[in-house]
């Protein structure tokens, strides 16, 4: 059953990559939303009843949008990969940041 | 003549492939009302079209993973080319018919089964019928992941689990992070996240799945002597396949969308985003690592995972069980149809045989379409409560399809 060995070998790599991209990016996105809500103040977050919510904190907006930008970069990387493999190229992570190389 | 039938049937398969798989990308966005049903299928259709055109790479050897009808460079085996390639064309035709019939049948039951499995199953069946057991590449040659076991069965067992784990982790983290944030923030934000991630899945689907049909058609053209270049695909083939899969996607397999979007779990926007991100990540990561898999299995695993990961959510395991049962029998069932079609076509022989099995396909397809009209599911009722209207996915007596075959 050599196939089983190959499959398991591939499986944990897929799992690791997918956890980072498939769960990590959504988590950043969620942090971005949290940050926007925190930045908006008022009723955007749950607080004690009868008390007016905190005043707006602009830094929350900035952090939120930075997080969204990171997510968008991740998605762009995904699209680049689809397009590149369509043209017979591959993404290489050899130099840490992705570069397009021939397959 | 046979060649024309193969091309038409292959495009038909591509079309069923499209509408069978709309749900993989768009079921969650439709269920959470992030997109209106019609908008969702239109978006997915367009992205599939773009995706299909992006796939410049030649997928000519797509059948090599499971059957031995081609040389490693993609040209058909010489032994099959006598008599204008009739032997090979008949195998491909019978295999495609097996795939279509099974796709339509599972659609009728509202079950998201894998279109690639249906295609491979049909080809395996037709090959066994035509060339015997040795014509099938069961286990590869031991140097890499290959053969029916390595390219089809193992990924089908492993990929839904991976997708489920990733989606469950993603959902859990998202709910932890956004606890206490006002709903107007979460709903709106995750709606956009969901649309983005679902679009990515659609695009990846277009590049992956349309390629398979392009490969099959080009193989048939080479067998018939109408094309010689194994390094490229005729433009009209590419255009026709892209349009067929996009039209199929736009038509929308509403029954399957309903099962995936409403049947398994009640999906909320954060779950939808976690599920689609997980699907997109698993699909892209595995194709990067050369790990073949089915979009359908991944999407289903992700949606289940998002149900497991949300605190207090309920998963309808009975529905999930029926899906898994459908996955298990997809390959053998499509193989049986493919084999029967080959025997029949071969028995009658020549062009007449090919015409007869093609007509049988049309009859079966029409029969199942008529049967589907009794309990229509379309964009108007796709989001109805699952428990109040169980008809849509209730088991239909197999009589209707059985007699149509």
Automatic annotation (TrEMBL), chain A:
Q: Which domain of life is it from?
A: Bacteria
| Keyword Transmembrane among UniProt keywords | yes
Bilayer-spanning residue ranges: 12-33, 62-84
Going by the UniProt record, its keywords in alphabetical order are: Membrane, Transmembrane, Transmembrane helix
Can you say what this protein is called? Uncharacterized protein
- What organism is the protein native to? Paractinoplanes ovalisporus
């Amino acid at each position: 059953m050599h196939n089983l060995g190959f499959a398991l070998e591939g499986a944990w790599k897929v799992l690791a990559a997918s956890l980072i991209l498939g769960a990590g990016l959504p988590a950043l996105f969620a942090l971005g939303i949290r940050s926007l809500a925190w930045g908006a103040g008022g009723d955007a977050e749950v607080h004690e009843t009868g008390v007016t919510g905190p005043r707006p904190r602009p830094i929350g907006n900035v952090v939120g949008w930075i997080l969204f930008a990171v997510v968008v970069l991740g998605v762009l990387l995904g699209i680049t990969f689809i397009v590149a493999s369509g043209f017979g190229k591959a993404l290489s992570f050899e130099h840490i940041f992705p570069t397009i190389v021939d397959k | 003549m046979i060649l024309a039938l193969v091309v038409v049937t292959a495009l038909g398969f591509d079309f069923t492939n499209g509408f069978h798989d709309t749900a993989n990308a768009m079921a969650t966005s439709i269920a959470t009302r992030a997109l209106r049903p019609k908008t969702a299928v239109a978006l997915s259709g367009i992205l599939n079209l773009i995706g299909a055109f992006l796939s410049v790479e030649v997928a000519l050897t797509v059948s090599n993973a499971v059957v031995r009808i081609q040389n490693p460079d993609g040209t058909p085996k010489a032994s099959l080319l006598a008599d204008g390639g009739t032997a090979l064309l008949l195998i491909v035709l019978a295999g495609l018919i097996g795939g279509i019939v099974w796709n339509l049948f599972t659609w009728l039951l509202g079950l998201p089964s894998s279109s690639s499995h249906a295609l491979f199953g049909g080809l395996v069946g037709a090959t066994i019928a035509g060339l015997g057991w040795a014509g099938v590449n069961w286990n590869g040659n031991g140097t890499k992941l290959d053969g029916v076991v390595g390219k089809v069965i193992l990924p089908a067992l492993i990929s839904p689990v991976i997708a489920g784990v990733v989606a469950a982790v993603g959902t859990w983290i998202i709910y932890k992070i956004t606890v206490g944030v006002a709903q107007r923030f979460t709903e709106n934000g995750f709606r956009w996240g969901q649309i983005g991630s679902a679009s990515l899945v659609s695009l990846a689907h277009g590049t992956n799945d349309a390629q398979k049909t392009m490969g099959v058609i080009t193989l048939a053209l080479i067998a018939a002597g109408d094309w010689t270049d194994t390094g490229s695909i005729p433009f009209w083939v590419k255009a026709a396949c892209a349009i067929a899969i996009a039209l199929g996607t736009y038509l929308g397999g509403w029954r399957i969308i309903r099962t995936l979007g409403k049947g398994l779990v009640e999906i909320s926007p954060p779950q939808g985003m976690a599920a689609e991100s997980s699907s997109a990540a698993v699909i892209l990561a595995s194709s990067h690592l050369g790990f073949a898999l089915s979009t359908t299995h991944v999407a289903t695993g992700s949606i289940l995972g998002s149900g497991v990961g949300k605190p207090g959510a309920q998963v309808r395991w009975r529905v999930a069980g029926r899906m898994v049962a459908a996955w298990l029998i997809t390959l053998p069932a499509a193989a049986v149809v493919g084999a029967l079609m080959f025997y029949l076509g071969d028995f009658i022989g020549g062009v007449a045989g090919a015409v007869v099995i093609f007509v049988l396909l049309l009859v079966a397809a029409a029969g199942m379409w008529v049967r589907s009209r009794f309990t229509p599911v379309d964009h108007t009722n796709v989001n109805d409560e699952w428990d109040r209207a169980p008809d849509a996915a209730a088991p239909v007596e197999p009589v209707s399809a059985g007699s149509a075959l």
